[in-house]
Amino acid sequence: MEANGYVAALDIGTSEIKLVVGELLGGTLNILAEGCAPSAGVKRGAVVDIDKTVQAIKQAVEHAETSLGDQIQSVYVAIEGEHIQIAPCHGIASVKREDQEITDEDVMEVINSAQVMRLPDEMSVIDVIPSSFTVDQQTGVVDPRGMLGYRLEMHGKMVTGSKTILHSIRRSIERAGLRLEGFILGNLALGMSAASVDEIDLGIGLVDVGHEKTTVSVFYRGDLVYSYILPVGGDHMTRDLVYKLNCKYQDAKVAKEEYGLALEEMADETEGFSYTNINGEVAFEPQSEISYVLEARIEEMFTLMLNKVQKVGVPTLNGGYLLCGGAAALPGIQELATRIMGQKTRLYQPSSIGVRHPKYATAVGVLKYVLMSDHHVSKSQLEKPEVRYESLNNKQEATDTHVGENEYETDQESKKGFSRFMEKLFGV
C-alpha cells in the first residue's frame, strides 16, 4: 500500500497487462486510475521474456500514473496458472501476552507455523489463506484478535507455485521499478469480489475466459472448492478464423472483435467483413459465417467445462455462472453459456468508470480483495470442503478433496471434444 493510502493491483495477462489503482472511501471502492499495455512476453500466466514483460509493465504504469498524477511505487499481483497448487494446512501457536489476549502477532505466528511442511524443491509458498481459527476449545472463530486464550490453531489453505515462474514475475516487477507487495490468488480474489455472499454460499461457477486459457472456479458454502484450467481461450477463437478466412492473424482479430457474435442466429445477413486474404485477393465474409465459427469453439469450451463441474460433487450451483475476462466481451456469449450450462449466467464487469470491461475483472478483484479484507484473516466459515487445483496438462492432484470423486479428464475425452468441434466447424 502506498503512503497516501491507495493500492495498485497488477494483472499480467498473455495478451494485455492491466494495472488498476484504487482506494476505499466509506466502504466503497473508488478507482483512481487504470493502465493497460499489450503483452508480448507472457505465455499462459508465465513470463517467457523478461525484457518484453518489463516494457509492458512500464507502459501500463506510465498510463496509470498520467491519470493518477502521482508515482506508483508498489503493486499487488494476481497469480494463477497451471503451476499453482492449493493444499490444506494447519498451524498451532501459544498466545504470548501475559494477559492472554490474542494480537496480530499471534495470528501471524500461527499462520507462519502452518507453512512448516515439506515441499518439492521447485515449489515455493505464495500465501496461506485461513478458513477458521480455534481458541482453546472454541472452534469456528473467524477473527481471534482481541479474544482471550492460551492456544491458537488455524485451519486453512496453503497456496504454492513454481519458484521459476514466481522469480521471473518478481524480477520483471522489480526491473520495472516497482516493489512487490505480494501475490494474490486471482480466481479467489475475483470470486470474493464479483459474487455476492449468498451466491458463494449457495454455489456459483466463475468462468474467466482469457487469451490462451479459461479458468472455471466453483465456490460453495462460502469457499473456493474447485478450480480447473482449460487451455482454450480467445486466441483459439481468432486462430479458427485465420483458417476459415485464410487471412492474417490481425485481420482475423478485427473480424472477431468488430463482427463476431457467440450465436450465429444473432447475425445480420447484410453485415460482413471485407479483407485481403493471404493470397492477396479481396474477399468478403458474412457475419453469420464468422459467428458460426466462434459459436462452434465457444460451445466446445463450455461443454468441456460443464462436464468437469458436474463431477465436482456440488449438488447444484444455485447462483448460476458468472462470466468475465477479455474474451467474455463477445456479444451473445451470455446467452450461449446459459443454453449450454442449463443455468442462469451473467456477465460480470467492474462498475467503476474507466474499468467497465470484463478484462479488468481480475485486477479490480485483487484490488477489492486487498482493500476490503484483512489479507491475513479470511472471512470464511468452518468445515468447508477442501479445494483441489487441476490443470488439463498437469494431471497431478494438489490435495484430497471432500467434494466428489477425484476424476480427471482423459486424453481421449479431450480428443472427443476436439473432434466434435472440428466436425461442426469443417464438416469432417
UniProtKB/TrEMBL annotation:
Among its keywords, does the record have Cell membrane?
Answer: yes
Which keywords label this protein? Cell cycle, Cell division, Cell membrane, Membrane
What InterPro entries does the database record attribute to this sequence? ATPase_NBD, Cell_div_FtsA, FtsA/MreB, SHS2_FtsA
The regions listed as transmembrane in this protein's record are none
Q: Region entry Disordered: which residue ranges?
A: 395-414
Annotated Pfam families: FtsA (PF14450), SHS2_FTSA (PF02491)
| Source superkingdom | Bacteria
Membrane-related topology note = Peripheral membrane protein
Q: What is its main location?
A: membrane
Q: Which residues form the SHS2 domain?
A: 7-194
Signal sequence, renumbered to the chain: none
Q: List where in the cell it is found.
A: Cell membrane
Q: Which residues form a coiled coil?
A: none
The GO annotation for biological process reads: cell division
Keyword NADP in the entry? The reply is no
Q: What does this protein do?
A: Cell division protein that is involved in the assembly of the Z ring. May serve as a membrane anchor for the Z ring.
What does the annotation say about its assembly with partners?
Self-interacts. Interacts with FtsZ.
Q: Which family does it belong to?
A: Belongs to the FtsA/MreB family.
User: Which HAMAP family is this protein grouped with?
Assistant: FtsA
Could you tell me what this protein is called? Cell division protein FtsA
User: Which species expresses this protein natively?
Assistant: Exiguobacterium marinum
